[in-house]
Amino acid sequence: MSGAYPSAYPVIQDWDEYTSGILPDICANGDGADMFRILVAPFRPINTSLAAAYAGAADIEDAEGPVIDLIGDSVGEYRQGLSDELYRRIVAGRLVASAGGVLRRKLYAGWVALTGSSSARMEEPGNSSVLLTAGVGFVPTEAWLLRAGSVVRALVGGGYQADASVTVPRTARFGSPMTPFGVGEFAYQLRIQRGT
User: Fold this and answer.
1) Which of 67, 110, 114, 196 could disulfide-link to 56, CB 3.0 to 4.6 Å?
2) In percent, how much of the chain has pLDDT > 90?
3) Interatomic CA distance for residues 71 and 59, integer angstroms
4) Are residues 182 and 97 in the same domain?
5) pTM of the predicted model, to two decimals?
6) Residue 119's closest CA among 144, 138, 136, 94?
């Protein structure tokens, strides 16, 4: 992450200046100051990590590694072997699912967050059913499909039936090298437990 962190988190930019500022004048120079700087040195990465986590929570799209883990832990989603990209999608969807709001808006916002797709669509073929589709820029793993289905179930709630699929452009070639039919899209179906 680059740039300044939001001012709501009191990040310490210059540790040497900070440590000098909190020491009494008699200790601010010489061996006492050096010893104090050595003692507080382990807190520098903690400060940096907290600032990064704060910024990541504000914008999960820029979050990486342990920052996503921290945000995921806060909503009960754990990495369990997913890459940053796939885990970021699960956590983003779960963040929306854990928020309040109007079902239709929340469902669509959660689907967009879960897929990271600008082509996300939501159709309501019946009174209590919903069909979600989206083109995604990643190839989903089996683990992602299972967990994404759980997020969709949380978004939809118990009263609705949901079907959801994502497509990955340019993943399936049809025809033979002599008579190619071009490149198509391969659809992945999410496994969503039926509502009760």
Assistant:
1) 67
2) 26
3) 11
4) yes
5) 0.65
6) 136
